[in-house]
Amino acid sequence: MKFLTDDFLLNTDSARTLYHDYAKKMPIYDYHCHLSPKEIAEDKRFNNITEVWLAGDHYKWRAMRAFGIEEKYITGSASDKEKFQKWIQTIPYTMGNPLYHWAHLELSRYFNYNDAIKEENWEEIWEHCNRIVQSDDFSVRKLIKKSNVKVIGTTDDPIDTLEYHKKIAENKEIEAEVLPSFRPDKGLDIRKPTFKEYIIQLGEAANIDIKGYEDFLKALEHRVHYFHKHGCRISDHGFEYLPYLEATLEELKAIFMKALNGETITKEEEDKHKTSTMKFLGEQYYKHGWAMQLHIGPIRNNNTKMFHQLGPDAGFDSINDFELARPLNRFLDSLEMNHSLPKTIVYTLNPMHNELIASTIGNFQSSEMKGKIQFGTGWWYNDQKEGMIEQMKALANAGLLSLFVGMLTDSRSFLSYTRHEYFRRILCQLFGNWIEEGELPRDYEFIGKIVQDISFNNANSYFSTEREK
To answer: Is domain 13-42+143-462 classified as CATH 3.30.70.20?
Structure first.
């Protein structure tokens, strides 16, 4: 029984026209993900379907835990075959969760398995998929090429040597651009016990002996230059909440020295450190023509027992609640007042902030370019049908959806490019509904061009740079 038809999620003639004639064949600009540049450089191959489909995927892990699966079958000592069986057992019960659609899309697009997934078929699916995984045509780079990916933005710490990005850039057989993104969160998290050790590593990477706050800023500036030299055009920052608390240079120096001396840092002191450091970094990004991404709103590692057992990024994060309007406006305004506000994309994990962000970005647009300040796509828990639609509607109501830079995978899996297809089908259904309801003209050529722009062209234009080379 074939589940995914050609018109999956496309419920009107207009939606079908927009998708099949305009969106479907557009290339992918995946400007934010957590893929390994090492695996791309080495063209990693996989031993079996579990390695490529389940490893590191905390979305799937959460569903399996909710289904009562023992942890040894998720992240533990069970065999890959046993872990696969437990995941297949879970899938039919994920109806209504985007995992249900994602799993079927991944099996269909990369393994040509188009039936509805059922527990009793798990061994048949295991054997079918493993024949493909072990064939000559299945490797990291071939998955990227098959997915029609033109640009990949990885997520990289400032201390990274970028050795694998260099190898990728030198390898003419790799058609997609693989570019680093600058993620300096460890330099902002001044209350963490690992901060002092990290500052030593940052100093070594920048060849600067960091003895104080000003040395710290010089080291960050040095690494921004280094990343830019190696193709970086995007930064990324993760915040449980967005702080904004101004401080004098003397205060910042004192706070930084307290951290280096192992003294306790208060939340207020951390907010001052983060605020001033982010303002400094924003100025650096503007100078280089980078885009700054702000991912705001997860509360992380909530299950202490499992954090001690598995560490971070294992599926125990959720949505935070906090005040955002005032700090977000003040932060953007502080950079604007200094004539150094970079291109900025703001993402929220809490959908209650959709309209807030959509209205805020309109305060700081510029004649420098169209859509300079962006409301980022539905992220994490909002990376599903209703979440995407609500984000796009909020943007359309308060701003210009036509300038939206569109979808990204935010994933560690090379099979997640199907999320771009999922997004494009939802995008076309949204515009198609507006056409069918008489809210837009039946001008497929013009609206189709907007769909293509959101699918690829806007991102391709947005992340190019005209500034300092």
So the answer is: no
Burial of 36-72, coded b for 16+ CB within 10 Å and e otherwise, reads bbebbbeebbbebbbbbbbeebbbbbbbbbeeebebe
Q: How far apart are the first and last CA of the chain?
A: 54
Distance CA 33, CA 179 (A): 11
Distance CA 451, CA 433 (A): 14
The contacts of residue 82 (CB under 8 Å, 6+ apart) are 73
Q: How far is the C-alpha of 233 from the C-alpha of 212, rounded, in Å?
A: 28
pLDDT tens, position by position, 355-387: 999 999 999 999 999 999 999 999 999 999 999
Quote the mean pLDDT of the chain: 96
Cα–Cα–Cα angle for 355, 383, 285, rounded to 5 degrees: 70
Domains 13-42+143-462 and 45-138 agree in fold: no
- Unique residue bearing structure tokens 């079908």: 16
Q: Over the range 382-418, which residues count as b (16 or more CB within 10 Å of their CB) and which as e?
A: bbbbebbbebbebbeebbebbbbbbbbbbbbbbbbbb
Give the C-alpha separation, 23 to 454, whole Å. Answer: 9
Whole-number pLDDT of residue 466: 47
What is the homologous superfamily of the domain 45-138 according to CATH? uronate isomerase, domain 2, chain A (1.10.2020.10)
Question: Which of left, alpha, beta for 24 (phi over 0: left; psi -120 to 50: alpha)?
Answer: alpha
Q: Which residue ranges make up each domain of the chain?
A: 13-42+143-462, 45-138
Q: Cβ of 19: how many Cβ atoms within 10 Å?
A: 27
pLDDT at 3: 80
As a whole number of angstroms, the distance between CA 444 and CA 152 comes to: 30
Element at 419 (helix H, strand E): helix 418-436
CB atoms within 10 A of CB 193: 7
By CB atoms closer than 10 A (0-12, 13-18, 19+), residue 207 is: exposed
What average pLDDT does this structure show over 426-453?
98
Q: What is the DSSP string of 97-136?
A: SHHHHHHHHHHHHHH---BPP-GGGHHHHHHHHHHHHTST
Q: Is the pLDDT of residue 317 over 50?
A: yes
Q: Residue 56 has which token pair?
A: 């590191």
